[in-house]
Amino acid sequence: MLAVLYRAGLRVSEVVKIRPHDLDMETGAVHVWEGKGGVDRVSYLDPDHVRPVLDPWLRERERMGAGPLDPIFCRGDLKGLTTRTVQLMVRRHKDAAGIPSSCTPHVLRHTFASELIEEGFSTSEVQVLLGHASVATTEVYVHVAESRLGEKVRGRGSGV
Question: Domains of the chain, with CATH numbers?
Answer without folding.
Answer: 2-154 (1.10.443.10)
